[in-house]
Amino acid sequence: MGVPVQGAKGLAERCPDEETLKMSVWIKGADWIVAWDEDADRHIYLEGGDVVFEGNAITFVGRSYAGAADEIVDGAGLAVIPGLVNLHSHPNSEPAYRGIREEHGVPTMFNSGLYERDQAFAPDAEGRLAGAEVAYCELLLSGTTTLAELSRPYPGWLQLLSQSGLRGYVAAGFSAASWTMENDYEVRYVWDEAAERRGFEDALAVLDEAEAHECGRLTGIVYPAQIDTCSTDVLVDAHAESVARNRPFTTHAAQSVIEFREIIHRHGKTP
Question: Using an 8 Å Cβ cutoff, are 163 and 15 in contact?
Answer without folding.
Answer: yes
